[in-house]
Design a protein that fits this description.
By secondary structure, the chain is an all-alpha fold. The chain contains 14 helices and no strands. The longest helix has about 45 residues. The chain is globular and about 65 Å long.
């Protein structure tokens, strides 16, 4: 067999082996995403998100944000980054306000879905949610003291007219069909890539290359591939890879749990940064804030675990 044919066969065989796992991973991910997406869509339509935001207004005023920004945070936390941006451009804000809110959404978006995915890989749903909300407000408090005035007006496009429930459901259904196809294709491509990396024994060199960075972040060197996927594509797709690696015994549950504590603060960094930059937010503040928060969570957890362990040994 020629070298070219051998490589082609390796790719074909990797694609064959990845298909069943990709189908099952995409199915459980969609089982989480679709109901939550529908619930949030209905909450937006019925005004429940606005009702929740009104109760949070005082909290936002204490971190230097207008009370109406509670709607933005709730939208992003419940539905995701794009919902948060859609809310941001529908309310009058300064660039300073928008920067703080963008970082809060980056740290704390799509909570119901992503925390459910974290639970699938062995982490506590509520612990992940509480940490993300707490860190979002702590970061906003610090940024309110650090950021310069930045009083220029942020993008404002105003609000559109309320659509009928039927049109909302039709639009939601269409978006879910597209999302379902994309979810499967992305997960399948990741699973094929993962098996190609394993077949050519690239995982060890990749782990070695990223090992210094993992040490800085307080993560095991074996977590480099999961960290890379999580930062490029996000928690949902990264967790699909984690579940597959755990199932085949290539990564321990403890390692996956460690990575989760980093990724809840600092995931989908490539996409989120590009999207927010296109929406007029500084990449420097976005990236620096999320990386610092991720390191703070991971290293604080390590220190607390050591203190508790020493106490128990006495």
């Amino acid at each position: 067999m020629s070298m070219l044919n051998k490589h082609a066969w390796n790719i074909i065989d990797s694609a064959r082996l990845a298909l069943p796992t990709a189908c099952s991973s995409a199915l459980w991910l969609l089982k989480l995403m679709v109901p939550i997406s529908l619930a949030v869509t209905l909450m937006q339509y019925t005004g429940m998100l606005e009702w929740m935001a009104e109760r949070l207004n005082p909290m936002f005023e204490h971190i230097g944000l207008p009370g109406a920004s509670a709607v933005i945070f709730i939208s992003g936390a419940m539905a995701g980054t794009y919902a948060g941006i859609a809310a941001m451009v529908s309310i009058h804000l300064t660039i300073r306000h928008a920067t703080i809110l963008a970082i809060m959404i980056g740290l704390c978006h799509a909570l119901p879905m992503e925390c459910a995915v974290n639970r699938k890989t062995g982490s506590s749903f509520w612990r992940m949610a509480v940490i993300r909300v707490f860190m979002a407000f702590l970061c906003a408090y610090c940024l309110n003291m650090l950021l310069p005035a930045m009083d220029g007006d942020y993008i404002y496009v105003g609000g559109g007219e309320t659509a009928s429930l039927q049109s909302v459901i039709v639009a939601w259904g269409y978006s879910q069909l597209i999302m379902g196809v994309l979810v499967f294709l992305i997960i399948y491509a990741l699973m094929v890539l993962q098996r190609i990396i394993e077949r050519y024994s690239w995982l060890v060199p990749l782990s070695r290359f990223l090992s210094p960075l993992m040490k800085v972040f307080g993560l095991p060197s074996e977590a480099s591939y999961m960290w890379l996927v999580g930062n490029v594509l996000g928690i949902s797709y990264g967790s699909a890879v984690m579940v597959d690696l755990e199932t085949r015994g290539l990564v321990s549950k403890d390692d996956a749990d460690e990575v989760n504590y980093h990724l809840i603060m600092n995931h989908s960094l490539l996409e989120d940064t590009i999207v927010f930059c296109l929406a007029g937010i500084s990449a420097l503040w976005l990236v620096a804030s999320r990386v610092v928060c991720a390191m703070l969570v991971v290293w604080s957890r390590k220190v607390i675990k050591r203190i508790v362990w020493k106490h128990l040994k006495k």
